[in-house]
Write a structure and sequence with these properties.
Strand order of the largest sheet: 1-2-6-3
Distance between the termini: 55 Å
Bound molecules: iron/sulfur cluster
Number of domains: 2
Strand content: 5-15%
Order of helices and strands: HEEHEHEEEHHHHHHHHH
Number of strands: 6
Structural class: alpha+beta
Shape: globular
Number of helices: 12
Helix content: 25-40%
Radius of gyration: 20 Å
């Protein structure tokens, strides 16, 4: 089957806004999958792009996590595409993957020619910017199409300058992405808590994406699941909420996997500590200094 026909079928069945084919299998380890891996024998990747951007209104939750959990949205769509492609291509195997795969999805997306790798480590679709989820079907079909160069990042440094932790500058080996800090288990250091308060985040960080010139004027066409029933803050009533109330808040959310304990800690640290209540927040430059 022609690659263009495969892409059309994939988009029709999955609702991906665009798709492409990566003619190799880039893995996280950089090695060929072992015989025990589900990816063993796979030769190429069909990559679907699923935008989530609906606008960047103020909030305490990063943009990707405001709608429904993308795993639960994209996985069934990929399964539908696998079914449609299997019917059209009997004997071929298609393995869905979204975020939890041995496949390097960012690389696979970059090699389709649909976009490029940004200096902030994200894939940028030329149409939708970096506000996209990547869904993949690894398959055992071989395609004689070129591996496309993922050129496009202008290396302007805007993402690095906007980053509140300095992790993109590379100079401070202890610097960590704020998004990872908000997901950490256990106790956070006071510097980490102050950083979260200063950035006003309870989950994730969008600073490098919002600063990137390639994200300006992008097409806005999110999947409906990412546009409806969005949350931008944690209700303060969660502080004293029952398990049932927490469960209701977390149902279908991308941050639910981390569990109530971490999220409640974040709420407490950012919104209810003495520093937060008094508005005594450490300035960004002081925080960077703190972390060196
Ligand atoms: S802000 Fe500049 S350097 Fe960073 S990803 Fe965008 S284009 Fe590349
Ligand atoms: S998500 Fe935030 S902390 Fe992480 S690299 Fe981007 S700007 Fe820096």
């Amino acid at each position: 089957m022609e690659p263009s026909r495969i892409i059309d079928l994939f988009c029709a069945a999955s609702g991906a806004r665009e798709a492409g084919i990566c003619p190799i299998l880039p893995t996280q380890s950089g090695k060929a999958p072992k015989a025990s891996s589900p990816l063993y024998g796979m030769k190429s990747v069909i990559v679907g792009i699923f935008p989530y951007f609906c606008g960047a209104e103020e909030g305490e939750i990063c943009l990707y996590a405001r709608g429904r959990d993308y795993h639960s949205v994209i996985t069934p769509r990929l399964c539908a595409a696998a079914e449609a492609l299997s019917a059209a291509h009997p004997g071929a195997r298609f393995i869905p993957g979204c975020d939890a795969s041995a496949l390097n999805e960012v690389r696979a997306a970059g090699y389709t020619g649909l976009g490029f790798f940004g200096d902030n480590g994200l894939f940028f679709s030329r149409r939708f910017g970096s506000f996209v989820f990547i869904g993949t079907l690894a398959c055992d079909l071989e395609f004689s199409i070129p591996l496309r160069e993922a050129e496009g990042c202008s290396h302007c440094g805007a993402c690095r300058d906007a980053c509140p932790t300095g992790v993109l500058s590379g100079g401070d080996k202890r610097a960590e992405c704020l998004s990872a800090i908000t997901q950490k288990k256990g106790e956070l250091t006071e510097a980490e808590a102050a950083l979260m308060r200063a950035c006003g985040t309870l989950w994730g960080c969008d600073a490098c994406q919002l600063a990137c010139p390639h994200n300006r004027g992008v097409e806005i066409d999110p999947l409906p699941e990412f546009a409806e029933n969005r949350v931008t803050i944690f209700p303060r009533s969660l502080r004293n909420a029952s398990d049932a109330e927490w469960d209701a808040f977390l149902e279908g959310r991308a941050f639910a996997w981390r569990g109530r304990e971490v999220l409640q800690r974040n709420l407490e640290l950012v919104c209810f500590t003495k520093e937060a209540e008094n508005g005594i927040l450490t300035g960004e430059s002081e925080i960077k200094g703190d972390r060196k």
